[in-house]
Amino acid sequence: MTETPVKKILRIDSSARHDDSITRQLGDEVIQRLGQANPGAEVVVRELYETVGFLDEHWVQANLTDPAERDPSQHEALTASDKLVRELDSADVILLTVPVYNFSIPAVLKAWIDMICRARMTFQYTENGPQGMLKDRPVYLVMASGGIPFGSAVDFASGYLHHIFGFIGISDLRPVYAEQTNADASASKAAALAMLEKWLP
């Protein structure tokens, strides 16, 4: 895709760990390189463990109700979700840092996905099937796994993320993977940085 000027970078962190998080460390490197390439770009940080909740029955019913027919409590129920969608849609570049937990993504990241996958807002149903409504843009997909190789039969994380972003219209995912970090964390991070060189030399 054609590169466009980067004014806003959305960083989404989903690791439960902070100082010892490999995905956060690699994410810092991505932000540094993006900043060097795009001086003055705003960086918005979305810390999922601190700001994103889970769906409940009231949220689901509100989401299924036609916007013109929602009552005040239903509008209120969707306020946080609406904000997350606007935040995502306004970003020129997205950085997503994702540890693999039990072969898949963290629950809090799935909660964020449930909040931003909204019919008539980020995707729509057509006679030809679902269609993403967001414009394409780069997504730096920083992932780390303790034991599994990415792309293997037991990797239920990376393929899902590629699919779900494509579902809402975003296909320009740029993987930066540190795999099997339990065996050799330094070598895994070095391999991930080598992948990053392809995108941000």
UniProtKB/TrEMBL annotation:
It holds the Pfam family Flavodoxin_2. It is an enzyme of class 1 (oxidoreductase). Residues 7-198 form the Flavodoxin-like fold domain. It catalyses: N,N-dimethyl-1,4-phenylenediamine + anthranilate + 2 NAD(+) = 2-(4-dimethylaminophenyl)diazenylbenzoate + 2 NADH + 2 H(+). Keywords: Flavoprotein, FMN, NAD, Oxidoreductase. Its EC number is 1.7.1.17. This is FMN-dependent NADH-azoreductase. It comes from hydrothermal vent metagenome. GO terms for molecular function: FMN binding; oxidoreductase activity, acting on NAD(P)H, quinone or similar compound as acceptor.
